[in-house]
Design a protein that fits this description.
The protein is α+β, with helices and mostly antiparallel strands and 232 residues long. It contains four helices and nine strands, in the order αβββββββββααα. The chain has two domains: 107 residues; 113 residues, Immunoglobulins (Immunoglobulin-like). The longest helix is centred in the N-terminal third of the chain and has 36 residues.
Length: 232
């Protein structure tokens, strides 16, 4: 493909990858932010890092929530946990389990479109009461529920993630073949935008929603700069 054609095709491909990755990061941080607001009580708790929720769901499926309890102590522990799930008829349940020394145990439960409260979100809060190792711990997550028939949220997420990474990589590769980047700092701006989107996704998907917001803002600003440069 001639360099000029590669440049014309590479730019929109790169932008589409940026856009897809940005959309995924925004979906994750938006759901997390709404979840924090939904369960806000003013109280502060030690963070519990064992809660795992899907980032995306569709209305036709059930999502699986897991909570993992680690026990690094030399004696067994018996964590007592409480779970609250959003919905017009909010669900609450509690249980206690025994975790042998130096082992872990995982429990799980399901959520569905019936648990949507603030459309299009499902929110989950897990609170673990104090034990000999920890004070009260808490974890909160939010799930964005899509109205996509015939597909699961995990499939949508995987397809969008792979498409984003491939489009950014291939688009930049074709764009880079153009030896004359005008203006001169356009290449650095494109590289920075790609890195910002990757960091936004990484932090948002791993629960660092505050850092995810920061990287989303940075990515948006860089995307606007690239768009302006590309139209010159």
């Amino acid at each position: 493909m001639p360099a000029k054609s590669a440049r014309k095709f590479g730019r929109p491909l790169f932008w589409s990858g940026i856009g897809l990755g940005f959309a995924l990061a925004v979906a994750a941080v938006w759901a997390a932010f709404e979840a924090q607001s939904y369960f806000f009580s003013g109280a502060t708790f030690e963070a519990y890092n064992g809660l795992r929720c899907p980032i995306l769901m569709t209305r036709s499926e059930q999502g699986t929530i897991t909570a993992t309890f680690d026990n690094p102590a030399d004696r067994e522990s018996r964590p007592y946990y409480e779970v609250e799930i959003s919905g017009r008829l909010a669900r609450q349940f509690e249980d206690q389990l025994t975790v042998p020394a130096h082992e872990s145990k995982t429990v799980q439960w399901t959520v569905s479109a019936d648990d949507i409260d603030l459309d299009p979100f499902i929110f989950v809060r897990t609170e673990i009461l104090p034990d000999g190792l920890h004070s009260t711990r808490q974890a909160i997550c939010g799930i964005l529920v899509l109205n996509v028939p015939g597909a699961g949220g995990g499939q949508v997420f995987f397809i969008m993630l792979i498409a984003s990474l491939l489009a950014m990589t291939a688009g930049y590769g074709m764009w880079e073949k153009e030896s004359d980047w005008k203006p001169a700092n356009l290449q650095r701006a494109a590289q920075a935008a790609g890195i910002a989107v990757l960091l936004a996704m990484l932090t948002a998907f791993t629960g660092g929603w505050l850092a995810g917001i920061v990287f989303c803002v940075v990515a948006l600003l860089l995307f606007l700069i690239i768009l302006r440069f590309s139209l010159v």
